[in-house]
Amino acid sequence: MLIRQKPDIAASEITPRHLFEGRRDFIRAAGVGIALASATGAGILLRPAPALAGTKLPALRRSPLSATEAANSQADITSYNNFYEFGTGKEDPGQNAHTLRTRPWTLAIEGEVKHAKVYDLDELLKLAPLEERIYRLRCVEGWSMVIPWAGYPLSELIRRAEPTGRAHFVEFISAADPEQMPGVRRPVLEWPYAEGLRLDEAMHPLALLTLGLYGEVLPNQNGAPVRVTLPWKYGFKSAKSLVKIRLVERQPRTTWSSAAPREYGFYSNVNPQVDHPRWSQARERRIGELGKRATLPFNGYADQVAALYTGMDLRANF
Amino acid sequence: MARTTPAGARNAATGSSRFPAWVKPVVFLLCLLPLALLAGRGLWHRLGANPIEAITRSTGWWTLCLLLVTLAVTPARRLTGWTGLLRLRRMLGLYAFFYASLHLSTYVWLDQFFDLPGILADILKRPFITVGFTALCLLVPLAATSTNAMIRRLGARRWQGLHRLVYAVGILGVLHFLWLVKKDLREPLIFAALLAVLLGLRLLWRRVPNPQRSPIAVGASRAQNA
């Protein structure tokens, strides 16, 4: 099947069609924007901040990797968040995250790579054609949503940096500025938030470098301006507001598994058979629904990702 | 409720406790306010993306609040000398039980939808649910023996002994909150600190003789004369 295939590097290099289309759309959109701005009379509209939350993204490709379920409403997705940098309550990020300045923003890729580089957000937005990926999100707390993200495979970024032979893991570091992120002023967790993946997990086509939501630039409370989305893992694995991606030799320390090693493992793949020590993971409540539904192994992405873990004891490597 | 019991007359005579008639109905309505607000949020769709969680949280939070308020009555009486406060204690305790019942119903009905095997597994396997459920079970005999008739039937001493269970309920209730939180322990720790103060005062005062009549004596004498 399509999805079982390895990331088709060759294809993306010799298939300039959507790349071109994407670029063309982007340029067209930019052109329209500039035309509009100048037409309306310079001053007011000519702000140097084209990619703030709510801004429409250029045309998105549809992805065959999208779920077919109905997506949750934008209101639910942007008002019910776990993003401790803005407070530990679910409504806190929606209320507090407006203080995050997402422009200018840079994301560095470094460590065991041949071409370390610091990307500006505009470069990131144009690095590869943006796709819409409708993914299920399963929170470790027992609720789930269906979310239309926009982005491109994380592998696009990683392979451009050319990992060295010693790169076995990928470490993600989030922003942690107490000035802009009120939650960081309290030591609820170790800041900055850090997450990690094995390199082959990070290169998997489902691992999405995410820049948008619902066809628009990512809202601050959802991890703006750039985050990862790993739909087969519990939500906390998908680090938000990234400033650094580091390729490393050894398994990196990750925030939640340092905070409570018995409760949150490095892998944290969605697994209905392995309970959180304090609650069951067998079922979940889809936000917007009353009853609970069964949780699926790897959050329903077993066909695509189970091969990454063959021979591993998933109970020990929870 | 008799308005001029001997206890009331005695209090009036010492001048330490005036008990205006409006106090009880006002407290009664105040205790209903959290439920009214919750219902209002439900009706106007202001319960957020996960309404069941919001209802569970709110009813649980108010159960703990009312438990602490109930446990604060005796120390407050001793500190202020206002014996009239004791007349509110039964109502406050029953309201704590009321919100606890709403909390349990939310879990059994809305959260688990009467999935009895699931509920049983939770109670046996999840320590925070085990202690929460135990606390609620311990509240049942207290609520059932809250009437004057039951105080008379049990006798003051036995009744008081039974109702000391509320200390255990407080401790289990706070543990329930502490153990369910993922990482931010601020709120449950505030509850724990308040509970520690309320129980600590009682331990402290056990060594110092009480200048006033013991609370049960007031209740019992009122019951006997009712």
Textual characterization of the structure:
- The complex is a heterodimer of chains A (318) and B (226).
- In chain A, β4 and β5 form a beta hairpin.
- About 13% of the residues of chain A have low confidence.
- Chain A is globular.
- In chain A, the strands form two sheets. In chain A, strands 1, 4, 5, 8, 9, 10, 12 and 13 form an eight-stranded mixed β-sheet that branches. A five-stranded mixed β-sheet of chain A has the order 3-2-11-6-7.
- Chain A has a single domain, classed as Oxidoreductase, molybdopterin-binding domain (Sulfite Oxidase, Chain A, domain 2, Alpha-Beta Complex).
- By secondary structure, chain A is an alpha+beta fold.
- With 226 residues, chain B is an all-alpha fold.
- Chain B has one domain.
- Helix content of chain B is 79%, strand content 0%.
- In chain B, α3 runs antiparallel to α4.
- Chain B is globular, with a radius of gyration of 19 Å.
- The N terminus and C terminus of chain B are likely disordered.
- Chains A and B meet through α4 of A and α5 of B.
